[in-house]
Inverse folding.
């Protein structure tokens, strides 16, 4: 088992592989956008730790105060993503990464660690059953079944911002809020835009490009969220099939 891990820094960011499934020797819009986003976040204490291999083994977390999510709390870390896949699964890498985050939190005198979950596990969210084995507990929830999980080290707990529980907007057309934290977002936006243009579906794509915008969002958010007919739908990236289900479901309501 290889235990050679690397933390991304401003000095090595340009050359290091980002650990997602995207494999490209040519310039890739999503990867370039993620690295640009990271270049600013690393200055704020953002941590991206990965296995030193061409695989998908990494954890990404940040101080909650500067994490681009509508979650509030004092002195916490927020875990955006913990991802191990392919031949690396089942070998203890996830445990090593979570233990690193926990030890880092203790060393920095943090009050705890939190992450976004759901009553029913959803794609594009870290495995909450795995997190609960470390002592994470549900400390807040929304009406759509999303949960805030926290591992408290001092008895305090974070919470969703009240605006995150609104889950409604006045705009009735398909509305997607997104930032550049995930390398898949650029291509996903392009796919959805093309479908909407070809099928006459009105749509708004709103980039969350400041911390304030992220903290004030009207729903939970990990880097992406979707509304239709004024109602919150999902934090999952969309393929065409899932988009069609949202449009069809709402038409039938």
């Amino acid at each position: 088992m290889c235990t050679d891990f690397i933390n991304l820094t401003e000095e090595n960011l340009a050359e290091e592989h980002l650990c997602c499934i995207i494999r490209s020797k040519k310039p890739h819009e999503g990867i370039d956008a993620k690295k640009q986003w990271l270049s600013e976040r690393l200055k704020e204490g953002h941590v991206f730790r990965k296995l030193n291999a061409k695989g998908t083994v990494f954890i990404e977390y940040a101080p909650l105060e500067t994490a681009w999510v509508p979650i509030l709390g004092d002195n916490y870390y927020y875990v955006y993503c913990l991802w191990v896949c392919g031949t690396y699964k089942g070998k203890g890498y996830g445990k090593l990464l979570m233990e690193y985050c926990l030890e880092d939190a203790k060393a920095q005198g943090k009050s705890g660690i939190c992450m976004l979950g759901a009553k029913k596990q959803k794609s594009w969210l870290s495995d909450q059953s795995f997190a609960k084995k470390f002592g994470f507990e549900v400390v807040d929830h929304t009406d759509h079944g999303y949960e805030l999980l926290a591992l408290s080290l001092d008895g305090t707990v974070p919470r969703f911002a009240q605006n995150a529980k609104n889950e409604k907007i006045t705009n009735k057309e398909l509305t997607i809020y997104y930032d550049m934290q995930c390398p898949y977002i650029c291509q996903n936006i392009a796919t959805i835009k093309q479908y909407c243009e070809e099928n006459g579906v009105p749509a708004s794509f709103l980039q969350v490009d400041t911390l304030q915008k992220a903290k004030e969002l009207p729903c939970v958010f990990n880097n992406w969220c979707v509304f239709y007919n004024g109602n919150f739908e999902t934090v999952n990236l969309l393929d065409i099939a899932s988009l069609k289900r949202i449009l069809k479901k709402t038409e039938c309501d």
